[in-house]
Amino acid sequence: MLLGLGRMSADSEIIALTALGIGRRRILLPVGVLALASTLLTLAMTVWLSPLALRILRSIEADLITSQISFQVQPRVFDERFPKMVLYINDVLAGGTQWHGVFLAEGGGEGGSRLTLAESASVFAEPREGKLELHLKGGTTHEFARMMRTITP
Predict the structure, then answer these.
(1) 111-145: buried (b, 16+ CB within 10 Å) or exposed (e) per residue?
(2) How much helix, strand and coil, in percent to the nearest 5, is found in the chain?
C-alpha cells in the first residue's frame, strides 16, 4: 500500500485525481479499511493462532518423543536421560517394547535412593501424559536411606 501511494504521489497522480474532484478521503478510505482489516487479522493471529499452533507443536513433539523413547534406549548402555534416574538394559526385544535385564537406579534427594532390578519389562508409552510406563516382572526393589552421624570428641 505504501509503495502504491508513494508511486501515485511521485507521478503526481494524487494531484491529478484531486483536480478531477476526487477528494483525498475518497482515495484514502479504502486504504485505511484495508490497513485496519490487516491489523485486526494480524492481531488475531498473534494473540490466538500463534499460541494455539505452538501448543499443538509442543504436544506433537512430546507425543513423538514419548512414543519413540523405548526405541532409542540402547542395550548395555547406562542411560541418564531420565531426570534423577539411571537406566541400564541388558537386552531389547520385540521392536523396543520388551526389555530384559533391567537395572533402574533412582537418585533420591535427602531421603535416600532406590535400586530396582528386574528380569524383564514391558514398555508402554503414554504420549498424552508424557510418560513412559514400565511393567517390571521378576524383580526386586532396594531402598537406601541416607544416614547422618555426628561424632563429638
Answers:
(1) eeeeebbbebbebebebeeeebebebeeeeeeeee
(2) 45, 30, 25
- Residue 119 near residue 100, CB atoms below 8 Å: yes
Sign, CA torsion 73/84/111/149: positive
Q: Among residues of the chain, what percentage have pLDDT more than 70?
A: 88
Instruction: Supply the DSSP string of 35-103, one letter for each residue.
Output: HHHHHHHHHHIIIIIHHHHHHHHHHHHHHHHHHHHHHHPPTTS-B--STTEEEEEEEEEGGGTEEEEEE
**DSSP 8-state symbol, 54:** H
Q: Which amino acid is at 7?
A: R
Tell me: the pLDDT tens digits for 80-97? 888 888 999 999 886 778
